[in-house]
Specification:
Elements (H helix, E strand, L loop, with lengths): L3 E5 L3 H12 L4 E5 L2 H10 L4 E5 L1 E2 L2 E2 H10 L5 E6 L4 H10 L3 E4 L4 H41 L3 E6 L4 E4 L1 H7 L3 H4 L4 H4 L9 H7 L7 E6 L7 E12 L5 E10 L1 H14 E2 L2 E2 L3 H14 L5 E4 L6 H10 L8 E5 L5 H9 E2 L11 E2 L1 H4 L4 E5 L6 H13 L1 E3 L6 E3 L3 E6 L3 H6 L5 H7 L2 E4 L10 H16 L5 E2 L1 H9 L5 H15 L4 E2 L6 H16 L5 H10 L4 H8 L3 H10 L4
Parallel strand pairs: 1-2, 1-3, 3-6, 6-7, 15-22, 15-23, 16-19, 19-22, 24-25
Antiparallel strand pairs: 4-5, 8-9, 8-12, 10-11, 11-12, 13-14, 17-18, 20-21
Helix pairs in contact: 1-5, 3-4, 11-12, 15-17, 18-20, 22-23, 23-24
Bound molecules: adenosine-5'-triphosphate (ATP).
Protein name: Nitrogen fixation protein AnfA
Pfam families: AAA_lid_14 (PF25601), HTH_8 (PF02954), PAS (PF00989), Response_reg (PF00072), Sigma54_activat (PF00158)
Keywords: ATP-binding, DNA-binding, Nucleotide-binding, Phosphoprotein, Transcription, Transcription regulation
Length: 572
């Protein structure tokens, strides 16, 4: 890069001497014999170093120096004088002259001073460059600091808050003037945010690693927030820590969306993403915190017990017991004692007092499965519990209070039972305050892949296996099959396959025969419908040398259909 020097002096010999010495050292030297010429040159050409005589006719070198400084020109000025005096020298230095030379000036001095001036200029330029870069970085950082969606707060080593961006102020709910320059201990009581781990660690003088926490911030209106806090030590390069910076990301919305998404596929122990299951989930939610009696209906194996469990566990009763009883499994007497308990001596084997299920479920919920199988006498007692919230133990006339939510279920048509006089109508309406009908699996086949995956996971962990999937044919069959036993049947089919499958994929060969045969039956029905002449059948049999399996295959029908056609034609 060109190094430019301007020599301003009215003495030509001086200008000549500077020019000849410096040109040989590869400096580009310009000359000016007076102040005005010098001004012209420094405004039209960048000068790195200016040597100027102090005496320049009507103006002097000090005026030139003043001009350079006023215009903030980027050059080093050295004053030269033939008549040194302390006052001008000190004035020159005060105004920012780099040096002050006294004539006569020899070559050595010119070269040495020029080199020093250039070294000084290089350093000054570097300093200016660094300063400009710093300003640029600082401006950018401040813009980032202001605009990011994360709260940022920095604290010094004494836990005094040095800075906080506007997002942080918003998250903490504390105005900037109450935050900046305050010690953490002074403001920690104002927001639960400051009670979290990173801030506690700062107060205790530790550095804390990145972690996730959920906290409720001071402004109650805003409610629970899921905040991810990250803290890092602020260190100078290789130096000691000068404080801590904590960043806070608000993930409330993300967490809510995640939860929603999960709920769509699963609700408590219920699996299913179909619209019908979404509707069930919504109903369960609205039923959870009301105390009404619920009647759950639906075919066997549709998940009625799981629904009852979800109603109980989703509500405020969840901390109290959830007691289940299958009413069809017990004789009338046993059921009565099981439901209401008995006292010692109530019957021959009653050797002591025994609490019934209603007592055990106190403040919680009781699930009465197969309610349609209950005898008229027990129906009457249940009606009393529902109406009066009271019951008596067998062998004791003292009524006991019942604070139990009743959830009943049946796969029977209770209305038909009422018609036949087998079920009390008044009990039916007491039970059916809200009816929840669980759809059979065939009406929500989009849940089948999800349920299949769920049961594979379940049996993998139960039997310590590593089965990955079912084949396309299996899934296809599952989607078409009518599942009379509903989810329970699917669960059992997969458990059956776990026994037979020794690899990683469940195929048709591993499934229960009745499910596979249901497919063959369907295919046979389809094939049977296609017209096929008796001649064609006989020809196929002859070609297959009367091997029925091969002939059926050649005709594209199943063996049973072929056999039926042969029988019809008297071929067997
Ligand atoms: N939606 C579902 N998600 C996961 N598992 C389910 C689901 N529905 C049913 N099951 C499972 O199927 C089996 C039968 O469920 P459950 O006992 O709740 O059915 P149910 O309708 O009460 O049957 P039943 O009328 O015969 O008493 C259970 O092992 C249960 O875990």
């Amino acid at each position: 890069m060109e190094k430019t020097v301007l020599i301003v002096d009215d003495e030509e010999s001086i200008r000549f001497a500077f020019k000849s010495f410096l040109s040989r050292q590869n400096y580009t030297v310009f000359e000016a014999r007076d102040f005005n010429r010098a001004l012209e040159m420094i405004s039209s050409q960048t000068m790195d170093v200016v040597f100027s005589d102090i005496v320049l006719n009507e103006y002097n070198g000090i005026d030139l120096l003043r001009h350079v400084k006023e215009q903030r020109l980027d050059c080093v000025v050295i004053m030269i004088t033939g008549q040194p005096d302390v006052e001008t020298a000190s004035q020159a230095v005060r105004l920012g002259a780099f040096d002050y030379l006294v004539k006569p000036i020899d070559k050595e001095m010119i070269l040495k001073t020029t080199k020093m001036a250039f070294d000084f200029k290089t350093l000054t330029d570097e300093k200016i460059k660094i300063r400009r870069e710093n300003i640029h970085i600082r401006t950018n950082l401040e813009a980032v600091f202001r605009s990011v969606n994360e709260g940022i707060i920095s604290l010094d080593r004494e836990a005094k808050i040095v800075n906080a961006n506007s997002r942080m102020i918003d998250l903490s709910g504390i105005p900037a003037h109450d935050l900046i320059n305050k010690h953490l201990s002074e403001i920690r009581h104002r927001s639960l945010l400051f009670e979290t781990k990173p801030f506690k660690a700062i107060l205790e003088g530790q550095e804390s690693p990145s972690f996730q926490t959920c906290c409720r911030i001071a402004d109650d209106v805003k409610g629970d927030k899921t905040l991810v806090l990250n803290s890092a030590s602020l260190v100078d390069k290789d130096g000691p820590s000068i404080g801590t910076v904590v960043t806070i990301r608000d993930e409330t919305r993300l967490t809510a969306l995640e939860t929603q998404l999960k709920e769509r596929y699963r609700f408590h122990k219920l699996i299913g993403k179909s619209q019908k299951m979404q509707h069930i989930y919504q109903l369960i939610e609205s039923l959870s915190n009301v105390d009404t009696t619920v009647l759950i209906t639906g075919e066997s194996g549709t998940g009625k017990e799981l629904v009852a469990g979800a109603i109980h566990h989703n509500g405020t009763k969840a901390i109290h017991p959830f007691v289940c009883l299958n009413c069809s499994a017990l004789s009338e007497n046993l059921l009565e004692s099981e439901l209401f308990g008995h006292v010692k001596g109530a019957f021959t084997s009653a050797v002591g007092n025994r609490a019934g299920r209603f007592q055990k479920a106190q403040n919680g919920s009781i699930f009465l499965d197969e309610i349609g199988d209950v005898s008229p006498a027990i129906q009457l007692k249940l009606l009393r519990v529902l109406q009066e919230k009271k019951f008596e133990r067998v062998g004791d006339a003292t009524p006991l209070d019942s604070n139990v939510r009743v959830i009943a279920a049946t796969n029977k048509d209770l209305k038909a039972l009422i018609h036949k006089g087998l079920f009390r109508e008044d009990l039916y309406y007491r039970l059916k305050v809200v009816e929840l009908r669980i759809p059979p699996l065939r009406e929500r086949s989009e849940d089948i892949p999800l349920l299949t995956e769920h049961f594979i996971d379940h049996f993998n962990s139960k039997f310590n296996r590593r089965i990955k999937e079912v084949t396309h044919e299996v899934l296809d069959l599952f989607m078409k099959y009518s599942w009379p036993g509903n989810v329970r049947e699917l669960e059992h089919a997969i458990e059956h396959a776990f026994v037979l499958c020794s690899g990683f994929t469940i195929s048709l060969a591993h499934l229960p025969l009745d499910i596979v045969q249901s497919r063959e039956k369907t295919e046979c029905c389809i094939l049977k419908a296609s017209p096929m002449s008796d001649d064609q059948i006989v020809r196929a049999l002859e070609e297959a040398r009367w091997n029925k399996t091969r002939a059926a295959k050649a005709l594209g029908i199943c063996r049973q259909t072929l056999y039926r056609r042969m029988k019809k034609n008297g071929l067997v």
